[in-house]
Specification:
Blueprint lengths: L1 E5 L2 E6 L10 H35 L10 H16 L7 E7 L2 H8 L1 H18 L5 E3 L4 E6 L7 H16 L11 E7 L6 H21 L1
Antiparallel strand pairs: 1-2, 3-5, 3-6, 4-5
Helix pairs in contact: 3-4
Length: about 220
Amino acid sequence: FCPLRLGSAVAGYMVMGHSKGFFSDNIYGDFGGHLDRALDRYQGNMKMARLNDKLSEMMEKDSLTSVKNRIAYDNYMNKMEQAISEGKEPKVAILMGDINNLKTINDSLGHDAGDLYIKNCCKLMCDTFKHSPIFRTGGDEFVIVISNEDFAVRDEHLREMRKKMEEIAASECPILSKVSVATGMADFEEAESLASYIRIGSLSLQLTELQSNVV
């Protein structure tokens, strides 16, 4: 009878009886030693796997906003492209966001203020689309892959976010809290391929920016 350990923790026990037909004590001891070493290697492999997962997570996280970055976006789109090639049409919409007034804030208040403004704009998007992955794909550019619970109410969420920005713009809050994001959204059903899907989102964003400029 002996405990099986993973580091300082007991993972289980090994028990063998002593009678004819069973292993002798020396074979039992050798077997236990081999099993202990195998568990040690298993623990080392598990630690390495957790470390690799952590590094992958860090590589795909935007350091300023903590949402996913461009690397994560490219990986996500590659997986979506693969799913489409296999005949699986994802039930998603893509929303593209371009932060307004960032250059003005950077020039007048400095880049630290601009970073805070980016984080405030990002928070508005995260608070609106709570169940969808959000990617920062450029300095002032974001992409939201609207999915899960958000997909069915995507139009309502987008209207709510735009209304919130209008209310903030009309308020007396500090300039860094006056978040403003130009947005454009496209459903996957409107596109024949992923490439045209992205173009529709880009065109929608351009139209939104044009309307905003007219206003």
